[in-house]
Amino acid sequence: WWQMRRLMEKSLSRSQTRYDVPGTKRRTDYDYLIVGAGFGGSVLAERLARGLDKRVLVIDRRPHIGGNAYDFHNEDGLLVHKYGPHIFHTNSEKVFRYLSDFTRWRPYEHRVLAQVDGMLVPMPINLTTLGMLYGREFTSDDAVQFLAARAERLDHIKTSEDIVVSTVGRELYEKFFRGYTRKQWGLDPSELNKSVAARIPTRTSLDDRYFTDSIQCMPLHGYTRMFENMLSHPNITVATGTGFNDIGTSINYDHLIYCGPIDEFFDYRYGRLPYRSLEFRHVTLGQQRFQPVGVVNFPGEDVPYTRITEYKHLTGQQHRKTSITYEIPCAEGDPYYPVPRPENFERFHKYLRLGDATPRVTFVGRLATYRYYNMDQVVAQALTVYARIAELDAKQQLP
Ligand code: FAD
Ligand code: UDP
C-alpha cells in the first residue's frame, strides 16, 4: 500500500498541478490540511486520522516525509541522515510509548569526542576530559574544587558565555565553547541566550554520555520507516514536493496545522525571524570505520565545520564502507535553528499574537513556534495539541 502511495506521490510531483492528475478529484475535501511532514505534522496527522477519524492531507515542500529527521539509504546502501545526526533521547515515557507503535528500537547511547589541544577528548567535560587535558587523575572532589577555583562569579547569568564561564572558567570556555558557538551561530556566545550552551552540562563524574535521559535509542529501521508507518492510514493523503503556496484554493479544508516558519506564513509582516542554517557535506569512504565515536566536535575556528558524524555508530549497520557528514553552519539556506535572542523572541511574539487571532490555524513544531526543540519535545507538543483538539471535538459532538 505504501509503495502504491509512493507511486502516486511520484506522479503527483511530476505533474506539478498535483490535484489535476487523472482519477483525482479537482476539488478535494479534507478536515485538516497539515503543512510539514516532520514530527509535528506526522504525529498530528496520525492522531487525527486514527484517533478522531478525520480526513487529513499532509504536504511538504521537500520531496520526502520525515522533516529534518529524514534518513535514506545512499547509493552504497548506507543509512544516512540527510539533515545531520538525529539521536532519539527522552525522559517522557508517554512520547516513547507513542512512537513505539511505529517502530522497534535499537539501544544507543550517544558519545561525543571533541578535538582540543591536538587530542580527542570526551565532551561534555567530565573527569576523563580534565585528566587528559591536565595530565593527571581527577577524583570527583578534585574536579569540583578545580572548576570552582576557575569559575567566574557573575551576578547575572544571561548569555551562553555567562553560563559557561561561571561553571568552568574562561580557559575551558575558550577551548570547548567559544569557537564552536561562533561557528554554529555566527554570533559570539556573549550574544546568545544562556539556554543554548546550557544544553551541554559539565560533569564531575566519569559519565561520558552526551545525554542522560532515561530513554536513549534509535529507530531500528530508521526514522523514515517510522514516519511511513505513522502516515500509513487510509484517512491520510501525503503529497511531498508540495509547498503551502502551491495549494492555492484547489483544496478545501476545515482546519490548517502549520509546521513551517511562522514569519513566512504571515509574509514576513514584522520582518524575518532569523534561523541558522547548515550545509551537510555527505561523504562515503571505502573503509569500515572513520572515527571512534558517532560524533566528533571541532571547536577550533581553523576548520569551517563544527562536527563530523559517522552514522554506523548510530545505526549499528554492518558495511564494508562508511558514511560521514560534515556540518558547516551558514546564514543562508533551509531554516534549521531558531536563534535564541531577546529581540527575536519579541518579534516571534508579535507573530504569535497574529497567529492567535487567525481562526482555524494551529502552529506546531520547531519552526512554527520558534523553539529550539528536540524531537521528543515536538512529539510532546503535537500530542498536547491533539489532546486539545480531541477535547473540543468531543464537546462539539455532544448532543
Ligand atoms: P521539521 O522537521 O523541520 O519539519 C517541518 C517540515 O515542514 C519540513 O520538512 C519543511 O520542508 C516543511 N515545510 C516548511 N514550510 C513549508 C511550506 N510552506 N510548505 C510545505 N512544507 C513546508 N533532535 C533530537 O531530539 N535529537 C537530535 O540528535 C537532533 N539532532 C538535530 C540535528 C540537526 C542538524 C538539526 C537541524 C536538528 C536536530 N534535532 C534533533 C531537532 C529535530 O530535527 C527537530 O526537533 C524536529 O525534526 C522538528 O520537527 P518539526 O516537525 O517541528 O520540524
Ligand atoms: N556547544 C559548544 N561546543 C560543543 C558542543 C556544543 O560550544 O562541543 C554549544 C554550541 O553553542 C551549541 C550548543 O552548545 O550550539 C548546543 O549543543 P548541541 O550539541 O545540543 O547542539 P545541536 O545538536 O542541537 O546542534
TrEMBL record:
Which keywords does UniProt give here? FAD, Flavoprotein, Isomerase
Cofactor(s) for this UniProt protein: FAD
A Gene Ontology MF term for this entry? UDP-galactopyranose mutase activity
Going by the entry's taxonomy, the superkingdom of the source organism is recorded as Bacteria
Q: Is Metal-binding found in the keyword set? A: no
Q: What's a GO cellular component annotated to this UniProt protein?
A: cytosol
Question: Do the record's keywords include Flavoprotein?
Answer: yes
The UDP-galactopyranose mutase C-terminal domain covers 175-372
Q: Which family does it belong to?
A: Belongs to the UDP-galactopyranose/dTDP-fucopyranose mutase family.
Q: What is this protein called?
A: UDP-galactopyranose mutase
Organism lineage: Bacteria, Pseudomonadati, Pseudomonadota, Betaproteobacteria, Burkholderiales
Per UniProt, what is the name of the gene that codes for the protein in this document? glf
Counting on the full-length protein, the chain here runs from 331 to 729 of 737
